[in-house]
Automatic annotation (TrEMBL):
Belongs to the AfsR/DnrI/RedD regulatory family. GO terms for biological process: phosphorelay signal transduction system; regulation of DNA-templated transcription. Keywords: DNA-binding, Transcription, Transcription regulation. GO terms for molecular function: ADP binding; DNA binding. InterPro entries: AAA+_ATPase, AfsR-DnrI-RedD_regulator, BTAD, NB-ARC, OmpR/PhoB-type_DNA-bd, P-loop_NTPase, Sig_transdc_resp-reg_C-effctor, TPR-like_helical_dom_sf. It comes from the Bacteria. It holds the Pfam family Trans_reg_C. Coiled coil: none annotated. SUPFAM superfamilies: C-terminal effector domain of the bipartite response regulators, P-loop containing nucleoside triphosphate hydrolases, TPR-like. This is DNA-binding SARP family transcriptional activator. Residues 1-89 bind DNA. Residues 1-89 form the OmpR/PhoB-type domain.
Length: 956
């Protein structure tokens, strides 16, 4: 049975086989073009429909059934796999596309050693064509593949005719070349071959006329000039060089025109001046003659290298060579042998003298270019194995390489300079847009900046949108910003007849192994800003070592960027593309299952951080094993800080989907929100989580979130909202049958009520809480906080004697444990109580201890409060200079302190200054030394004590 796609899609078996319907033909074509490989159902749906209907999968199954019936007599097998279908061709069956590819490969392999055989292979390959590829199917992906096959046909035709000219078949080739140039009037290669054939037949004037015709057509239709090869041939014709160049008898560089194969430099090239300067400095320093520029698709690697090469051209007398290695072009990448053959032909070595083995050909190349000064550009490389045979062996040559991957294998075996190239910054993005648009459009930088942000600084995207604005004067920047802000941004980043940004990404994606494709898709779909090895492993259920290696591969291929903290992040447009692929190739259930694993991991780590930082609070999910806790509180806080953006994004995702992770993640971040987070963002996240918990009737979540909202509003000085949420939290713990879980809510609510002078309410709250305290005292911080608040209640109601007992209990509870902040509060309260009871020695001892406990604490407000209390005490009972020193510490940065504390410190300093003024005329009387002076100073201190005691009683 014979399968045909080089023309209409047909099957023959002693006559044509009926294929029922165009979708069955399209399905067969897709399977044939991927024979031996499984084609997923999602990809089939994408290929058969622009917008797959809900019944697409069922229709595909029906088409497969019809195709099986049509191929019933074939020995080929249509296999159903886990994710799609695969067509395996039997040895007795044939496919014209497979035969075409095999014949072309054979022709290229023998072109250098046996040109006549190569021509026969090419002719046999071209004879298989019956029209345009896939002529009777016109579906999305197949249209792209058809265009690629048609291009291969033209390339094969050109290569065949070029080889015939090398064999001297000039006259026979002219007719075919005339037909080819009419069919493709804007292709340079047929024009060049026709001019060579005419020249070789002594028809120089006709060759010159054809050049003039081609140049005119090119300028009128594209606004371009012919390339350097064609221009060089034209100059030779004008000089009267009618005869073809003789074939050299020996290998080597013959005398003749110097090769100048560099692509044209971009007139609108913008930015990268610092990169170019660094590269030129590196080359001038002789530190290496191989440079690898690598980066994301579309970041301008080739443009940069071409600009660099043109700026260095004068240094390389023996010429400039250019090879497109086609790593990401349709079809296969250029083999080392083919690339070497092209390089050798470019420097004038006749193909017939080249060896057939790649290693031998690489050696011949190094020998030929030894001592020559050549600049070689190897564009779009794939691997070190592709590059290494192409490197000259001497230092006179410079090799510039572009690749989407870092090519670590090359860097480990050479002294190559590795230069990563990223997207443009905001300034250069706007400059590039202006250079493409031109001066005709008067657009503000702010508008262009908005457009540049939507292009994420990617030069290829910036050029596309700039060209759209230049071509269509009716299109405004505002219109384009609105288009790109929609869900189809990648669709807008293309020009008519151009594959656009999506095609550049697609080639990088298709080059990945299946497992990396799946990981990349899931990473894009995951609700996080960046990923770590641990989170990627949880997303995929892979071992961490496997996830680590996979992330490194994706980073090396510039499909992920490395963050400052060692994580990995998407470029915005790549994430958009990868998310598209995820929605097409992965089911919704698969995507949600992966995200659920990620949320579980983040929730468990957040709980571990929470239990490390707040060991006396009830655990969020379950008690975490000690070995799984963070080693230190600093480590837990550091992890929360590094992952804060991801935790917030995961929490919002969970809230949108009403998952319990929403409150688990938000609660786990409590310590981070308290110390570093934005209060309004905290309230917003808690409110979203509360709505989700209420929608699913999750009382556990509602209790946690109400406690969090109470704390957030408390720290934001919103008394009414804070009191409401704490009371709701306490009520919910009773409904859950776990009233002791609400003790921390009691504690903070009591502080809140004390701060606002609601002493009766505070007494009621504290009495309820103390009655609920467990008898085994496993929560010393909590109990100490409640007793400390009870002591403050007595202080604020002018009962310092009654305050002493609960404060001493609090001090005993905290002795022997690491609770410096809690102890400092108790020490301050004991100091104030003793000060009120006129026990200055004990008061000073407690207040100095509070300052020592907070000496290295990061919270400036806590330290400032301790210095304020000690300063106020010293102003009454101690040395005024020392009092000023402690108050000065508080006032060093008043903007970081509590406003009430700052006002109190300034008032105390004012009283001290007044006291000093009163003491100026007083001098010790003769015979009394300084005693009288000290008594007068104490008198001034007593006047101050009235203010200090009043303020101390109202400020904790």
């Amino acid at each position: 049975m014979d399968f045909h796609v080089l023309g209409n899609v047909e099957v023959w078996n002693n006559g044509p086989v009926a294929l029922p319907g165009r979708r069955v033909r399209a399905l067969l074509a897709l399977l044939l073009l991927n024979h031996g490989r499984t084609v997923s159902v999602n990809r089939i749906c994408e290929s058969l429909w622009t917008d797959p209907p809900p019944t697409a999968v069922r229709q595909v199954q029906h088409c497969v059934s019809l195709l099986r019936k049509a191929l019933a007599d074939s020995a080929s097998r249509l296999i159903t796999g886990a994710s799609g279908y695969q067509l395996d061709l039997a040895p007795s069956d044939s496919a014209d596309v497979v035969e075409f590819e095999n014949l072309v490969s054979q022709a290229r392999a023998s072109a250098d050693t046996d040109p006549a055989t190569a021509v026969s292979h090419w002719r046999a390959a071209l004879a298989l064509w019956r029209g345009n590829a896939l002529a009777d199917v016109c579906h999305a992906e197949l249209t792209t593949r058809a265009a690629y096959l048609d291009e291969q046909r033209v390339v094969a035709t050109e290569e065949c005719l070029a080889t015939r000219l090398e064999l001297g078949h000039y006259r026979e080739a002219i007719a075919e070349l005339v037909s080819l140039t009419r069919q493709f009037p804007l292709r340079e290669r047929p024009a060049e071959l026709l001019m060579q054939a005419l020249r070789s037949c002594g028809r120089r004037i006709e060759a010159i006329d054809h050049y003039q015709l081609f140049r005119t057509r090119l300028r009128e239709e594209l606004g371009l000039d012919p390339g350097e090869r064609l221009n060089r041939l034209h100059r030779e014709l004008l000089r009267g060089e009618d005869s073809p160049r003789p074939v050299p008898a020996v290998t080597g560089l013959p005398a003749g025109p110097v090769p100048a194969e560099l692509p044209a430099d971009l007139v609108s090239f913008t930015g990268r001046s610092d990169v170019l300067d660094a590269l030129i400095e590196h080359i001038d320093g002789g530190e290496g003659r191989v440079v690898v520029v690598h980066g994301i698709a579309g970041c301008g690697k080739t443009s940069l290298v071409v600009r660099l090469a043109h700026s260095l051209a004068a240094r390389f007398d023996d010429g400039m060579l250019y090879v497109n290695l086609r790593a990401h072009a349709p079809g296969r990448e250029l083999s080392p042998h083919a690339a070497l053959s092209q390089l050798m032909r470019s420097i004038g070595v006749h193909p017939g003298s080249l060896p057939g083995h790649t290693d031998e050909l690489a050696g011949r190349f190094r020998s030929t270019v030894a001592g020559r000064r050549l600049l070689i550009v190897l564009d779009d490389a794939y691997s070190a194995e592709q590059i290494l045979p192409l490197l000259p062996g001497t230092a006179e040559c410079l090799v510039l390489i572009t690749a989407r991957s870092e090519l670590p294998g090359l860097l480990s075996r050479t002294d190559a300079l590795s230069l990563p190239l990223g997207p443009f910054g905001p300034h250069d993005s706007v400059r590039l847009l202006r250079s493409v648009i031109g001066d005709a459009t008067c657009t503000a930088d702010e508008d262009l900046s908005a457009l540049a942000r939507l292009c994420s600084g990617l030069p290829v995207a910036l050029r596309v949108v700039g060209e759209r604005l230049r071509r269509d004067r009716r299109l405004t920047v505002t219109d384009l910003v609105a288009e790109l802000s929609g869900p189809r941004r990648l669709d807008q980043l293309r020009l008519p007849g151009d594959a656009g940004v999506r095609a550049a990404f697609d080639s990088s994606y298709r080059a990945l192994p299946d497992r990396l494709q799946r990981l990349w898709r899931l990473l894009a779909y995951a609700p996080v800003d960046s990923v770590s090895v641990h989170s990627a492993a949880s997303l995929t259920s892979w071992p961490e070592s496997q996830a680590d290696a996979a992330l490194e591969q994706l980073s090396t291929a510039h499909l992920l960027d490395v963050t400052e903290t060692g994580g990995y992040r998407f470029h915005d447009l790549l994430r958009m593309y990868a998310t598209e692929r995820a929605t097409v190739e992965d089911t919704l259930a698969e995507r949600r299952e992966a995200v659920a694993r990620l949320l579980d991991w983040y929730a468990s780590r957040a709980d571990a951080a929470y239990q490390t930082l707040s060991p006396e609070f009830p655990p969020i999910r379950r008690p975490v094993e000690r070995s799984r806790l963070f080693a230190t509180k600093a480590a837990a806080m550091s992890w929360l800080h590094d992952e804060s953006t991801n935790l917030v994004m995961c929490g919002r995702y969970a809230a949108r989907h009403s998952l319990p992770h929403c409150w688990q993640l938000t609660t786990g971040m409590t310590n981070w929100w308290v110390n570093r987070g934005n209060r309004s963002d905290w309230v917003e996240n808690l409110s979203a989580a509360l709505s989700a918990a209420q929608s699913i009737g999750d009382r556990e979540g509602q209790w946690r979130i109400n406690h969090g909202l109470g704390l957030a509003h408390y720290l934001s000085a919103n008394f009414a909202a804070s009191r409401t949420h704490f009371r709701k939290a306490i009520s919910l713990t009773h409904l859950l049958g776990r009233p002791r879980d609400g003790l921390w809510s009691h504690s903070i609510l009591a502080e809140l009520e004390l701060d606002h002078g609601r002493y009766a309410d505070a007494a009621h709250t504290l009495r309820q809480a103390i009655e609920l305290l467990p008898s085994n005292r496993r929560t010393p911080r909590l109990e100490a906080t409640l007793y400390r608040n009870l002591g403050y209640l007595h202080l604020k109601t002018d009962r310092p004697t009654e305050a002493m007992e609960p404060l001493r209990k609090a001090n005993v509870l905290l002795s022997g444990i690491s609770a410096d902040v809690c102890r400092s509060y108790v020490e301050i309260a004991l100091g104030q109580a003793n000060q009120a009871l006129r026990r200055p020695v004990l008061a000073g001892r407690h207040l100095r201890q509070a300052v020592r406990l907070l000496e290295n604490h990061h919270d400036r407000k806590l330290r400032g409060n301790a210095h304020l209390r000690l300063g106020a005490f010293l102003a009454e009972y101690g040395d005024p200079a020392e009092a000023r020193a402690h108050l000065g510490i508080l006032l060093e940065q008043p903007e970081t302190q509590n406003a009430d504390h700052v006002a109190e410190a300034r008032k105390i300093l004012a009283w001290l200054d007044l006291d000093d003024a009163l003491m100026v005329p007083l001098k010790p009387r003769p015979g009394h030394g300084g005693a009288a002076h000290r008594r007068d100073r104490a008198s001034g201190g007593r006047r101050l004590s009235q203010v200090c005691c009043t303020m101390a009683a109202t400020t904790v």
